[in-house]
Amino acid sequence: MKFSINREKLNTIISEYSNILKENPVKPILAGLHISVKNNKVIFKGINTEIELIRYSECKSEIDGEVLIKPQLLLEYIKLVETENIDFEKSNGYLIVNDAEFSILDETAYPEVLEISTLVATKLNSIKFAKLLEKVKFLSSINSMDMIFNSIKINLFLDYLEMASTDSYRLVYLKEKINNNLEKEMLIPTESAMVIYKILKDIDSDVAISVGDEKLILSWENAYFTCKLLSVNFPDFKSLLNNFKYDKEFEFNREELNSSLKKVISVTKNSVDTKNVAAFNFKGKQLVITGMSSGAKINQKVNMIKTGDDLKLGINCKYIKDYIDNIDKNVIIYAQNATSMLKIVEEKNEDYIYLVMPVNVRA
Known about the structure:
- The protein is α+β, with helices and mostly antiparallel strands.
- It folds into 3 domains: 108 residues, DNA Polymerase III, Chain A, domain 2 (Roll), CATH 3.10.150.10; 118 residues, DNA Polymerase III, subunit A, domain 2 (DNA Polymerase III, Chain A, domain 2, Roll); 113 residues, DNA Polymerase III, Chain A, domain 2, CATH 3.10.150.
- 20% of the residues lie in helices and 43% in strands.
- The protein contains 7 helices and 26 strands.
């Protein structure tokens, strides 16, 4: 195998695989990036137990062939090379890349990776799709053993798309108007969603979204991606949203509330028993946030527009800030009492809803 390829293009492609290919003690071969060359075209393939990514690119080939290599050191080297093109040559059990030699793996045992042809459900701009994922992925955790809390729900309807995630203490819901060719419910692992986000946020291309063989399938210019779907039952979030009741409403300037939360978190993050938790006293025309740790106490006052009675309760400040970081306009909090779930929305936007449970606090 012998070919050359544009350095910038190669750097972009291999960087995408760094999000997918990890050391695998059970199947070490899955840590490798498969590269094949034929007729001035190069195909990159990388897979793990959940994800497949195929990338295509033009190249200048002298000898067709294939190779399997761990991409991490290769990527570090390519980033330091200053030439416009990178030369590859497989020779005597090594991959020669410009002036460096890299050990290779046995490509003959690499699993076959094939593209699945199926009906395209919808098309979205890659950056837009990444931003939608960003608005919901902050809540789910890749560290949770319960896949319900380590996943993102995606529902496709004929004229809109829904996304939701939960960690049992809070839930975020997003709705986006979009034309779809079919109706489908999907549950994707958070780790897969993060990989999709990292790849798509840096490109600007139309992405075709399909579903087939219990997989989410994404394809865009010179790329094909799949991830396995989960089969666990996601909570009935529609009932929570539709049955929510409140008799109090508090509206805040986003920047003012966010600034106060940052200051309170600087103190409460050091609390052993109640990390990031503070007392929220909605009274009159001001919210007073009181936070404590073993060595400090802080009070922050935030102006507000209040409808209904005063209210005092405990809230995890970081939970509120997580949502505020994803909006641009005023923040509105709906509540009923100190033990009922809170509903938080962005001003004039009922398509992005955040539900949070209050917590017990001493203040």
